[in-house]
Amino acid sequence: MYRANFVDPRKSPMVYIVSHNWPKRWESPGEKNDITVYSNCDEVELFNDVNASLQGRTKREGMGKPVVWNKVPIMFNVLHAKAYVKDKVVAEDLIVLQGLPQAPAFNRLYTDDEKVKDTNGYKYIYRVNCGGPRYVDQQGHVWEADRPLTADDSWGSSSWTNGFDNLPATFASQRRTFDPIKGTRNWSLLQTFRYGKDKLGFQFPVPDGDYLVELYFIEPWFGTGGEMDCKGWRLFDIAINGAIVDSHVDIWNEVGHDQVLKRTYAAKAKNGRIVINFPRVAAGQALVSAIAIAAKEKIKAAAPSPLLIQQARFDPDSVDLSPSTWLDIGDEVFSGKTDYFTVIPPALFGATWLRFPANLTGQQKSLSFNVSKDVDVYVLLPKDNRNVYNSLADYEDTQMKIASGGPTPSIWKIYRKRFKENSFVHLSFGKNNLPLAPVMVVPVSKLQSAHDLKTSITYKPSTATRSHGTTAIRYLEKEAIKLPANGPAQIDWTIKTGVADTYSITLRYANNLKQPIKGKLTLRTLDGSLLHEENTLFTPSRAGKWSYSYSNTATMINAGQYVVTLTLPQSNGLVISNLDIQ
Prior knowledge:
Number of strands: 45
Distance between the termini: 33 Å
Radius of gyration: 28 Å
Shape: globular
CATH superfamily of the largest domain: Galactose-binding lectin
Number of domains: 4
């Protein structure tokens, strides 16, 4: 978005509220700071409703510099920015926030021209929310959750990950936006989407014959906050059963940014199915938000590919539970209650999960279900009270937390256990009058999380056991340990890991000599068994700067406690600060 700051605003005016992926920035109305807007125009005006100015226009200070507002009274769920060149509005941007009261003029964001509607004379067989959960539209029609294709006699989606083992099925092919969508009141249906190239596809079993295929698109990225010309930035073909039915589809060129584009095609089923894919992408990637398939006569839909959670029920009364899918921020935590998720660890986005009534307690129920693949089952507890649940004794503490906002904000600890395909999962909550929090299920994957998203635990020098002659000091404004100028030294840290994994070991240090200092790093169990040993070298540090020594456990270690030991035959005044385990 920033490149527009360096072009003529009369040709490509731009204004962008930071950030569209941050809808849950505030939990309640009040005075807010650091509201940041980028623009290449003369002035920017900020609104806290569709058209209610907060503080009038603000001049931009210079090229590339954002406009920032502080101490602004934010009361409603709309932030709207207008950019001006010579007193004329030339660009606008708007985001809808979650968790704040609805703006008085909110309904102005809806348009009367509803694009999401049935075609007269047809009976609908399939409706699918591509990249999103089950959705009931304004007319009461159910759009089923997108799910990976697992069998030829079921319907589902596929992507590039089908060519690889043990990858999340929708990895790098699913996203969502929080922006308002023009041309519909069914924002949630269009805000999720699947994207990709020739490997992205959808299959629907049907008898051979004639059908109507409806595809819904939006352009979620190109053109955000500006009047720039995005023609040709996304170009793709659409094929049904191998035949090209549309070429060089350009969503932005047809409807612009965040507006519904509906395409309808007559299609013939071949070999008992309709297959939709995107065989050629000339620019960007293909993208689709929803699919509907209809016929003149009534036809029964095939079963969808199975969810990860099967036959979920409360015991002993065997009340069946319907799993939810595509876990995301903004989802209601409990049915019948308005609390919603505000913080979700990356590992749980898109999870299949069980949402319970708010008034249900562990004293009343226990829970059981089957899993259709190798999965990790995550259980949420309101605090560190795992021991009161007998069935959770062997669940690992993930060191992760999940949070909700609303009338009763909460933070839960997350525990995990791995189950094999077709396993039976039973959670007995005993006689304790404790609330049942959601249970979440994620397929096992060999894809490593991004390093900066993994939980990191810092061990301060004060938590270490150190040999004689070391001194606790403050160095470069940090707590540290100074080792003796002559002779050997040793430092031990007792660390705790929450899940079975390979862990990185990072030491922050300062070596003020001109030559390296040699040491040895070991990892042992509490009973002294050696798990890993390696030599380490502390190279000279720049004056007034910390240096870092990187290592790892070399192999996967289980949840538990371990001892990391640093030994130096000649410590030479080395300064050691934090130990980070990630």
